[in-house]
Amino acid sequence: xxxxxxxxLPERPRLNRLFRLQWEEAQQAYVLLYPEGMVKLNLSAAExxxxxxxEHTLDELISxxxxxxxxxxxxxPVEGMLRAAFEKNWIQ
Length: 92
Known about the structure:
Layout: E1 20-24, E2 29-34, E3 37-40, H1 43-50, H2 58-69, H3 75-87
Antiparallel strand pairs: 1-2, 2-3
């Protein structure tokens, strides 16, 4: 069994099954729920994690975000956020 390090992000990242991404009205934000608690996400993190469905490739995810936000060159910040999410076991 191979182990993917944060330097080698999954080709098709998906949210870990232990976590659930949802809009929380009381927080007026997207949150990541897990058995021990909750993480309030900023808009950028939520938009990235919404696309971590195991279907989108990393390139597709980045392309969609660049189109959605009307920005270019989002690869570095998106990969940085995904590395942090991978290290926290939010994505697989």
